[in-house]
Amino acid sequence: MKKKVLISGLITSNLLDESALFLSRITQVLAMNRDAEIDLLLTAPFEKNTVLKQLLNYPNIHLIDPFEEAKYSDFHFFSGIDVTARGAALLIDYTLHHNDYDIIMIGSLDVGRELVRMDSRFIDRLLVNVTGMTKNGNAIPEEIWQLLLTIISGGGRLLCQTQQMIHYLHSELHIENEKMIYLNPMIPDNLYTFEQIFTPRKRYNRFSHMDIFSRESEIITLIDQFRMLQETYPEAALYLAEDDTAKTQEIPELLHEVLEHASNIIWISGLTPSSTINLIRLSDVGILYRKDDLNDSFELSPKLFEYCNMAVPPIINRSEMHEAILGADYPYYADDDVEFYSQMVKVIEDPELYEATARKVYALAKQFSCTATYHRLAPHLFGIPENETDQLVSEVFQKQEPIFREADSIYFFPLGENDMQFIEEAARHGRILSMDVNNGVALCHVQAGESGSMSDMLKAATELAYYTHRSHFAKASEDIGHFIKGAPLPIEQIPASEPAPEIEYIEPGLVLSLETENAQLKNELAVIKRQYQRLSSSKLGSMQKKYWKIRNKKKNKKSR
């Protein structure tokens, strides 16, 4: 049965901030249900597709841009400045009065508060993401707990980023657990094996730190610590990166003089989602160490899971939230500057511990993928699947075990590191006819009673690769070279120059239409043309053209 879903919040579609990423990814997750029809209401003009470009490929996602649609033209606040929480609530309220929705998902408490104040008729369909919640010993502000209780008493539900937040709200406000839904930070599905992601080296000495504008004074301390490290390990490198939410891509004034005389400390700005992933992949360690005033937050940084997804262990504060994810015995906790320095030394001096930790964090990231999130979230929003196939898909993914359905000879198996092993197992049930993929699970159709052949298995593996979009191209540090601002070394000398596999994600549940696929091919052709033109205009290209021109002349003379 079809379900209409409205998703909105203070999303800035032209920036790469966490609110935009949250709303973009939860939209992708819900779109994995083929019976869901989703409207994503923007609260900023759709100027750049940095965050939202993948959503355009989904047949069951519709982007509502009120800055372009005529029916929203009467709103007075479209003046080029950011829309406030009240402005976002007005847009949502207007949309709700013109469309009928089964589910209304709001990305932040401030927008939810304004919407509830305006109109309480929609509360029974409301799901509000709880943000800004801490356990610092102070009581929950009365305005907030009254809002939460109003949503709950009206039949709405709360989305909580951690189990600790659910426990806290249950103990402090006596909110029933079934009124709260665990919704973890989401990361793209990564179908590569650890061996494909991880590049063993003799020494791991490349560190990266992102989002440096928020606490510039702490960055100065970090750089001082890193300079001390370089006195013993001069080859160590530090990337200071800022995504394209930054209002400027210039080096902050506070850091300019520091970086001007630094060695192997590299400033990078203007990162898109894909280039952020590639920079993480080129790093050995992510720096998430912060001052301890953030330790009481019930929320988790998405960067934690993005680093883990690339098998890059972070140096991070020890907190209840982090221990719940990484374990109490995680080796790279730092609670002060002295511990932070010693952890950087530990990474460099103990490569065996580092490699074991990299494997551990890579494995734990799987449970926070978009597909894993969907399978946890779907029963709360859409109920138990009505058809048997969807039920089996959910069971296979959650148990990570294959199932063979004899009635129609379909072998279900979870996608991951054991794909070829499962394909061989499917071939034991009969000749493999075709492959499908459904929300992280492969459906292998076989002809029972006929023996499987090696060629059938190879064909199945090739077909599966098309669905998972798994590629193994090399990607070197030169590809992020145009983001470097004032690098102290020529880009080819930056220590991160070892080739690494490029990570190409296919968003979960995405089925590309012929039109979309054609557009992608056109884009790839344009890239090839640009590469040819660059080569053609180079000295090497000029020599090659002269060589072939002379050779063709000689060939023509001989043919005469």
From TrEMBL:
Keywords: Coiled coil. It comes from Macrococcus equipercicus. Residues 511-538 form a coiled coil. This is Glycosyltransferase family 4 protein.
